Amino acid sequence: MSAKGGSSPTRAQVAPMGSGRYRFMVGVVLVALAVLVGRIVDLHVIDRLFLQGQGDARTLRVETIDAHRGMVTSRHGEPLAISTPVVSLWANPQELPSDDIQRMMLARALGMSLADLNARIERYAEHEFMYLRRRMTPADAQPILDMRLPGVYAQHEYKRYYPSGEVTAQLVGVTNIDDKGQEGVELAYNSFLAGQPGKRRVLKDRKGRLVRDLHLIKEAKPGGNLALSIDLRLQYMAYRELKAAVDEHNADGGTLVMMDAKTGEVLAMANLPSYNPNNRAELDANGLRNQAITDAFEPGSVMKPLAMSAALETARFSPETVIDTSPGWMRVDNFTIRDFRNYGDLSMAGILLHSSNIGMTRVALQLEEDAVWNRYHELGLGQAPGTGFPGETTGSLPTPFDWSDSKRASMSYGYGVAVSALQLASAYTAIANEGKRMPPSLLKLPSPPQGEQVMSPRVADDLLHMLEAIVQPNAGGSRAVVPGYRVAGKTGTVRKVTQTGYQQTAYRSLFAGIAPVTDPRIVTVVMIDNAKNGDYYGGLVAAPVFGRVVGKALRLLDVLPDKKEAVE
């Protein structure tokens, strides 16, 4: 039927979906379902390890476990360098809060202005790491961490601390901000002290915060502990006395070395100027050098006993041999050599007592051309001491090739050669130790070394008693006298050398000595650099330091007095 105005479609007019189209749609659905199932199987079976690795890469971390640096101690175990735990705060600039309130809180906690903090964040904006503040104490760092600001993290490290400060600064040395040795023993034994870091696997969230400590991969191995030969009691005392002398004489600096005569161990080594290794903000570069080991200088008259030992080894000379030093001056190769005055006839002992350059010249010129050079070489001069200390000097010992008489003469009284204070002290151990020179050691030794026999026991004994005469009332070394003890030693005064030649008004004042004479225990060398308050002779400037230091040292070491009047 039709309605007025139009007609409606009949059932016959609606075409049914063809069977082909129906099957196509069902097929599409089934294919899609198969692909989905296949992908699920692929993800859970075939790509399972890959996906797990990707997840682990985003959550699992291998972290380094810092190994604390080994301790440096004195011979008696007192700490000279120790490592303390510190915290370094760092940030991911891309995660830090952007609002000024939170940034202001962080800046105040760090002790900086908001402008400085914003400038630093801007500078590292393209990076994921920047330090906020390094090497804070855990107590100072914890309040900042408690703020729980996004992007702020902690890194646990170690900081080196030096309990004895400037007293042992040049010997012990320092580490840099990454705790690696930069100077002194810290540098020389860095690999031994540093230790080996460990590793651990940890689980962290997407912001890098620790969720769980999973397992240890490799244990951290702490650095080894290093025992130096230094006796800290003697070190403090030596530094104090040296500083007092430098201040008293308005000197540029000074050096003191005290060695065990029997073992060669360095019991004290002080240098001025110095510095505070715990606060290097106002560091004087001159204070970094361990002058006792790294600096060489012309030693002057303290070399005369060592040169004379070469003569006393021959049958031609004995302590009683008389040498004519008149008229107090002589010409050698167009050079004039002078004594303080005309001493006339002097025995070999008298030559040392009056420190006669003429006497030493006449003796040296009667010896074989290389006799003095050979003796100096046997005593370790012109060679590295072998302590392992960075930058140790070899000094200067010119090769005896076609030498003039003036060169042979000047070498016999301590010019034309250069030594360090450590080399000089080591050379004097031969006189103190029956002719055996002991190589110097900065480390505590388990047993005394063999030493090297460089002169006969007879010559060493003769020299020891000849030097004792110098440390007597009214003699040149009288100010080195130690109450209760017999002391032997030699003074020296030498002009400083610069690039322009010898200075006319700048001197080094020296004293090298041995105590006690009965059974020598210590050898000590004192050098005061450029005393400017009037006195500059070794007997007036360096000898008193020797007397005070050695006197206190012998008492601290419980060495019995050996002067007859002191014993009775």
TrEMBL record:
<keyword id="KW-0133">Cell shape</keyword>
<dbReference type="GO" id="GO:0008955">
    <property type="term" value="F:peptidoglycan glycosyltransferase activity"/>
</dbReference>
<dbReference type="GO" id="GO:0006508">
    <property type="term" value="P:proteolysis"/>
</dbReference>
<feature type="domain" description="Penicillin-binding protein dimerisation">
    <location>
        <begin position="65"/>
        <end position="213"/>
    </location>
</feature>
<dbReference type="InterPro" id="IPR012338">
    <property type="entry name" value="Beta-lactam/transpept-like"/>
</dbReference>
<keyword id="KW-0131">Cell cycle</keyword>
<feature type="domain" description="Penicillin-binding protein transpeptidase">
    <location>
        <begin position="254"/>
        <end position="549"/>
    </location>
</feature>
<keyword id="KW-0378">Hydrolase</keyword>
<dbReference type="GO" id="GO:0009002">
    <property type="term" value="F:serine-type D-Ala-D-Ala carboxypeptidase activity"/>
</dbReference>
<dbReference type="Pfam" id="PF00905">
    <property type="entry name" value="Transpeptidase"/>
</dbReference>
<keyword id="KW-0812">Transmembrane</keyword>
<keyword id="KW-1003">Cell membrane</keyword>
<keyword id="KW-0961">Cell wall biogenesis/degradation</keyword>
<dbReference type="GO" id="GO:0071555">
    <property type="term" value="P:cell wall organization"/>
</dbReference>
<feature type="active site" description="Acyl-ester intermediate">
    <location>
        <position position="301"/>
    </location>
</feature>
<dbReference type="InterPro" id="IPR050515">
    <property type="entry name" value="Beta-lactam/transpept"/>
</dbReference>
<dbReference type="GO" id="GO:0000917">
    <property type="term" value="P:division septum assembly"/>
</dbReference>
<dbReference type="GO" id="GO:0043093">
    <property type="term" value="P:FtsZ-dependent cytokinesis"/>
</dbReference>
<keyword id="KW-0472">Membrane</keyword>
<dbReference type="InterPro" id="IPR037532">
    <property type="entry name" value="FtsI_transpept"/>
</dbReference>
<protein>
    <recommendedName>
        <fullName>Peptidoglycan D,D-transpeptidase FtsI</fullName>
        <ecNumber>3.4.16.4</ecNumber>
    </recommendedName>
</protein>
<comment type="pathway">
    <text>Cell wall biogenesis; peptidoglycan biosynthesis.</text>
</comment>
<comment type="similarity">
    <text>Belongs to the transpeptidase family. FtsI subfamily.</text>
</comment>
<keyword id="KW-1133">Transmembrane helix</keyword>
<dbReference type="InterPro" id="IPR001460">
    <property type="entry name" value="PCN-bd_Tpept"/>
</dbReference>
<keyword id="KW-0573">Peptidoglycan synthesis</keyword>
<keyword id="KW-0717">Septation</keyword>
<dbReference type="InterPro" id="IPR005311">
    <property type="entry name" value="PBP_dimer"/>
</dbReference>
<keyword id="KW-0997">Cell inner membrane</keyword>
<dbReference type="GO" id="GO:0008360">
    <property type="term" value="P:regulation of cell shape"/>
</dbReference>
<dbReference type="GO" id="GO:0005886">
    <property type="term" value="C:plasma membrane"/>
</dbReference>
<keyword id="KW-0121">Carboxypeptidase</keyword>
<keyword id="KW-0132">Cell division</keyword>
<dbReference type="GO" id="GO:0008658">
    <property type="term" value="F:penicillin binding"/>
</dbReference>
<comment type="function">
    <text>Catalyzes cross-linking of the peptidoglycan cell wall at the division septum.</text>
</comment>
<dbReference type="InterPro" id="IPR036138">
    <property type="entry name" value="PBP_dimer_sf"/>
</dbReference>
<feature type="transmembrane region" description="Helical">
    <location>
        <begin position="21"/>
        <end position="41"/>
    </location>
</feature>
<dbReference type="Pfam" id="PF03717">
    <property type="entry name" value="PBP_dimer"/>
</dbReference>
<keyword id="KW-0645">Protease</keyword>
<dbReference type="GO" id="GO:0009252">
    <property type="term" value="P:peptidoglycan biosynthetic process"/>
</dbReference>
